[in-house]
Amino acid sequence: MADKVGIEVSVAIGDAVKLARADVVAAYPITPQTHIVEHLAELVASGELDAAYIPVESEHSAMSACLGAAATGARVFTATAGQGLELMHEVVYVASSMQLPMVMTVANRALSAPLSVWGDHSDVMSVRDVGWIQIFTENGQEVVDNVLCAFRIAEDRRVLLPVMVHLDGFHLSHMIEPILFPEQAEVDRFLPPNQYPFPLDTAKPVTMGAFAPPVIYSETKKAQEVNIRASQEVIIECWREFGDAFGRYYSPVEGYHSEDARVLLLTMGSFSETAMTAIDRMRDDGKSVGLVRLRLWRPFPFEEIRRAVKEAEVLIVVDRALSFGGPGGPVCSEVRSALYGEAKRPKVVSFVGGLGGRDISLDGFEAIVSRGMEIAETGSEREFEMFGVRE
Amino acid sequence: MEKYALYVPRLVTKEEIFAPGHRACIGCGEALAVRLVCKALGRDVIIASATGCMEIVSSQLPYTSWQVPWIHTLFENTAAVASGIEAALKVMSKKGKRPARDTKVVAFAGDGGTSDIGLQALSGAMERGHDFLYVCFDNEAYMNTGIQRSSSTPFGAATTTSPAGKMSIGQTSWKKNMPAIAVAHNIPYVATACPSYPFDLMAKVARGLATPGPAYIHVLSVCPTGWRCPPDLTVRMGRLAVETGIFPLYEVENGKYWLSDDSSALRPVTDYMKLQGRFRHLSEDVVEEIQRRVKTEYAGLRRKARRRHHEDG
Question: Who among A56, A60, A209 is closest to B72 (CB)?
Fold first, then answer.
């Protein structure tokens, strides 16, 4: 195994896609994912990556070209963010519904208006229900590792679904971090060639994307739902085997001092790292706090969440997106759903913060915990509070 | 014509790649066009189809009319899907991941999927230079959703979203010149065709398919349902569109125009229009305006075009 190198996370993603030996990259530039596709263009231009690079005229066409390429059995990658993900929205549904495996990194970004190129999870939440497997990452190493895992999960014969790997725009995409790259031979052992079972092939013609009258549509959707739920086992298996091969293990839900904590924070994405440092500080002050980090966003790990939080008295969920006029933070409403039927469950408090690139600092997380405990103690589990908004 | 009956069956393959049993309307000119185009394409093609009449009539689960690999995803993205297929085939063959066959990529879409909602994806694919053939089956409105106007609907035609009324003559804009837009992309091959001229259509498909780089063929597809004309007049209606100069047949090879069928004496547009309910409401002066413009445009085309003598023209 090679030494760690200091590298921008976006560039590292390009290198991971090269290690995965992608066949087709179709992409459109959008902040903050541009460095990913720029680097891939360089790798193809220099001959380091033997792939077709399609510089499409929009994200809608990026995802559409990915559909066509995946349907031939190629290994396919794209990247997007924010408005780009919104523009490709209807195409994203088709990729999962037609079981076309591909990997897309999303440098999570706020949505217009007002225009903001900076990070939050608004774009993610608009694709919550599109049927893709969705994995969240907290640092550059996790992104690289999970891009490799994502190809293997997506192309697994038992899954055949597209996978999004989420990384926070700027907060993660533009950081220079120490990253350990596996050797090519190790990746080749871990990630077998794509063997898509029914590609577009004149030797064996197939009709793909037939239309469904009411007599069959529900059945196709049930099959899709059963498939994505069943994929969780394969995802866990893939992470275990990745860990056995490379020494870094991942799980749908990961804890940090969470087993014995009276109060738990729950986060998703790069600010989990800040939250962990905040937990250290609060523990030093003698507070019984811990952190639960959600890695697998879809399929949602209901059982793992229930297990992870059941001993706590208070659970404070911090979201980076709003559901306008809705039940609070989108992650929190999933967590509340998971806990609703539980006889023993913590009080759940929802915060929304860190929108449009605004940081939540160590002090911020401490303030969230204090305020969350206050809300829990006064007995009211209100919908949510926004954190850090100037009045 | 008598001679044709003797040798025509030998000229055209009896193989039906667009299989019978589909659900197209009676007298559908588009289904006829697709059938002939497919005969000319042969079996070594992958077809990407846009949402629209031909997709709906041919692919209702669990049936299919397609004897070649065929994919439908969405309405406006067919050229982009074809781009992905073409790029993938090329790189996969190069990397030895697929047999190195000369499989061609073909995109099918209607006039809405081409000149309206799909124009951006098509422009991108033509500009990038993918090696593919794009066939637009133009029935001059959104027929699949119920005869709504598109930018390809002719001036004066009544549709459900450009109805004729006391304050309206129907469609108030002139038909968008899609072939000229394709030509403006400097692609090597552009043609217009119509299934009423089957040999011309099939020859153009063969030429477009053989052309390296993007090729575009715009096929007028008579729609008795939407045009409000008798379904047994489909073939005649296509001929009248050509003979009146309303839909001239031509090719543009590397920017050079060639007329496929030159009539120095055009028939009056009324020969074509009077057979169709969609034009029935038009007053004489509007018809005269259409006649003038058709003549002017045809003269313009003749000025820049040369006459090509095909034995099959």
Answer: A209
